[in-house]
Amino acid sequence: MNIVVQKFGGTSVASLSTQLEVMKKVMRPYREGNKVVVVLSAMAGETNRLLALANEWVTTPDAAEMDSLVSTGEQVSCALFSMLLKNQGIRARSVLGFQAPIRTDCSFGKARIVDIDTTALFEMLEDHDVLVVAGFQGCEDGRRITTLGRGGSDTSAVAMAAALKAEVCEIYTDVPGVFTTDPNICSDATKIDRIAYDEMLEMASMGAKVLQIRSVEFAKKYNVTVHVRSTFSDEQGTLVCQEDDDMEAVLVSGIAYDKDQARITLVHVEDRPGVSAAIFSPLAERKILVDMIVQNPSKGSKTDMTFTVPKADIKQTLKVLEDLRYEIGYEDLLSSSDVSKVSIIGVGMRNHSGVASRAFRALADENINILMISTSEIKVSFLIDEKYTELAVRTLHKEFALHEGGIQQESCTG
Amino acid sequence: MNIVVQKFGGTSVASLSTQLEVMKKVMRPYREGNKVVVVLSAMAGETNRLLALANEWVTTPDAAEMDSLVSTGEQVSCALFSMLLKNQGIRARSVLGFQAPIRTDCSFGKARIVDIDTTALFEMLEDHDVLVVAGFQGCEDGRRITTLGRGGSDTSAVAMAAALKAEVCEIYTDVPGVFTTDPNICSDATKIDRIAYDEMLEMASMGAKVLQIRSVEFAKKYNVTVHVRSTFSDEQGTLVCQEDDDMEAVLVSGIAYDKDQARITLVHVEDRPGVSAAIFSPLAERKILVDMIVQNPSKGSKTDMTFTVPKADIKQTLKVLEDLRYEIGYEDLLSSSDVSKVSIIGVGMRNHSGVASRAFRALADENINILMISTSEIKVSFLIDEKYTELAVRTLHKEFALHEGGIQQESCTG
Questions:
Q1: Do B83 and A99 touch (CB under 8 A)?
Q2: What is the pLDDT of residue B414?
Q3: In chain B, which residues touch A (CB < 8 A)?
Q4: Is residue A85 part of a domain?
Q5: Are A24 and A166 members of one domain?
Q6: What Rg value do the Cα atoms of chain B yield, rounded?
Q7: Which of A180, B74, B203, B223 could be B134's S-S partner, Cβ–Cβ 3.0 to 4.6 Å?
Q8: Regions of chain A with pLDDT less than 50
């Protein structure tokens, strides 16, 4: 049984006319003899309407009831779309989270998929050619409805593809695929044909908002090939898949940026064992996500500690650290929110040094000062003044020749 | 564990302000230490909105998908109402059809409850003081969502009361209870304090639209006391319950009417065995509901056969009978839709004749011609010209002294 999974977002199912367009997309693999599993979001605007309703009722809605409420959005879009298919004589039916069943943990509002029992699904596929699965929702062991968080339908789709061992998981979106960088900033940005899971994870977490991060983690774990493509054309999009030699031959695959960064510096912290824990544990407890961390070389028994947090968390972070001033033992607390992070991403970096130094030079030539650096196996990130973000992205995009397919390692001068 | 079941309709849950009123009703039995099971309909207008959406999509929506679609209405109202309760610190949760579970057959759109497994419900009642149950919906064995048909929330409520052995099942409505007849026609109509299941079945099936018929059948079968009462006051309403001596002492309990009647006459039908089957089986196959049937005495080998059907079915009925003209063997086919049925109802009739003849006289005094008569143990129905409906209802209401509690059997002159 050849199975193709397709996922469509809220804009695609928002009206009868857009659903008819979606039906055309479904008909392609259907006519080729595949079983098609279509994962749908709620009609655009519906989830927000339901959230607003809940907030009219109470200030802090119960999380479990909220999930039961908002999950009706996908239930409606799936029922309507199934009606369209059945009306065309196609053997189709809707499948809700509890019917699949898509089993999740009990974290209402941000549940994680634990397991998809495929017994019932394969039975349904015997009698049906198209299953219309409600995205974004699952069901915990006590039979209560859960939701997977914003963008959760991507994860639903990838999870279905993994469970059903589908040929491919097509994610339809309003852009033609994944780009080497944000085309709004850099007109030279080009569509990437194939990108490795790890690269996509770095791209997604840094603002290339094409896919929910968790769906990429899922795809990587179960080796699901994800095809990100446009709802508005039949063109090939971007394949997110396992790393291969061709990908590694390219030094840099993309440039990402993230303006949601704020920098905190603790001046003259005592350089003693346990001081890092004293600083970062209280932040972790408050679910403040610390990203880049730099510790300057000690001067005597003192050191400076600099790190970044999301801009929205800066006030709370400062409050926590001020309260712990004597416990941690620092002299001064500095902060700045006029910063951003620009990152160079590529699995090719694994086998090649020299990317960072080449980037330094390129940024220096444009007089862009680097405030912090952090590196991983496949990524180099720079913290810079926010106002230089666009210039830095364009400079690096050009430096690594991403407008013409990137630099092949043979030609790398690292 | 004392359990009270309460059911509220669409108008009662339509907005935040009306839901706050419903909350007050729930607080009464809750404060008295009862566990409360609240059965809710969809917010007024929501079911129609969803039906309209489906009809925009396709002309003949798939029944199973339709149920999945419209069941979101109750899901939304239950989630919102549970949020309100939880916000007040009440241990409450919503319960959907598949969560209870309320098991039904597979007749999508008009499913019948097969069974309510109370294991999960009693477990929920250990941890919660109020369960907010979605009315109108159930779940068939294949885990698909079903709905019980218009007014199905009444049946949901009675079924919950039966399954949980609740003290009482309160049905809140926009009228103060069940009346001796339609107050819009007869200003003398009075509220009935207690009415027997069988009487209520006759009243309900004939246009006293307070309770869905099936819910009364259910209540009778499981001996559930149903309290029909007003959402807008704390006054006692009408108890629908088992027949007792007091009820039997009253000759007539109420007058019902039904304008949705059309009369068909087959003139000079051959009076041979099997002719009735030849007429009525084809109608039954087309789900045309035949109500009153009268066969005139034979003249030789011929007879006249007259019966009534709902007005909407008259064309189809005539078509069926015309097609079968030679098979059945009749001389002429007559029809009239300007007729209505007026019925006298009362368990007291069981032990007393004379009700019919008394009614004949009263109607004759007003020059109302009786076209057909049918009788059962607790009911006498007259088919009359539709234009006399209101006059007949008022005449019979007065004749049997329903404005002053009805005629006690001692004083009956039958």
A1: no
A2: 41
A3: 16, 19, 50, 53-54, 56-62, 64-66, 68-69, 71-72, 75-76, 78-80, 82-84, 86-87, 93-94, 96, 98-99, 120, 143-145
A4: yes
A5: yes
A6: 24
A7: B74
A8: 411-414
Chain A residues whose CB is inside 8 A of the B16 CB are 56-57
Q: Are residues A153 and A271 in the same domain?
A: no
Q: Which chain B residues are within 8 Å of A56, Cβ to Cβ?
A: 16
Q: Is the confidence at residue B410, as pLDDT, over 80?
A: no
Angle between helices A46-57 and A72-87 (to 10 degrees): 150
Chain A interface, best mutation among B53, B83, B90, B131, by max A CB count within 10 A: B83
**Mean pLDDT of the region B387-393:** 96
CB contact under 8 A, B62 and A83: yes
Distances (CA, A) of A178 to A221, A239, A345, A350, B66: 20, 9, 13, 21, 38
pLDDT digits (tens, 9 = 90+) for B265-324: 999 998 888 888 899 999 999 989 999 998 877 777 888 999 999 999 999 999 999 999
Give the pLDDT confidence score for residue A74 in this predicted structure: 98
- Closest CA in chain B for residue A121: B142
The pair of three-digit structure tokens given for residue B413, joined into one six-digit string:
């002159």
Torsion angle defined by CA atoms of residues B7, B13, B17 and B19, in that order, rounded to the nearest 10 degrees:
40
Token pair, residue B86, equals: 């939880």
* Span B140-165, average pLDDT: 94
What backbone torsions phi and psi does residue B406 show, to the nearest 5 degrees?
A: 85, 170
pLDDT at B207: 56
Last residue of a domain, one of A173, A200, A227: A173
CATH of the domain at A25: 3.40.1160.10
Asked if the Cβ–Cβ distance from B68 to A60 is below 8 Å, we say: no
* Alpha-carbon gap: B282 to the closest alpha carbon of chain A (Å): 29
Collect all residues from A whose CB is shorter than 8 A from any CB in B.
16, 19, 50, 53-54, 56-62, 64-66, 68-69, 71-72, 75-76, 78-80, 82-84, 86-87, 93-94, 96, 98-99, 120, 143-145
Q: What is the pLDDT of residue A410?
A: 61
- As given in the structure block, the two tokens for residue A368 are 């862009």
State how many domains chain A has.
2
Distance between B80 CA and the closest CA of chain A, angstroms: 6
Report the distance separating Cα A235 and Cα B321, nearest Å. Answer: 60
Judge whether residue B1 has pLDDT over 90.
no
Domain that holds residue A20: 3-173
> Using CB atoms, which residue from B56, B64, B69 is nearest to A76?
B69
Averaged over B125-134, what is the pLDDT? 98
Structure tokens at B1: 């564990």
The three-state secondary structure class of B145 is strand
| CATH number of the domain residue A306 falls in | 3.30.2130.10
Q: Residue holding tokens 């959230």? A: A51
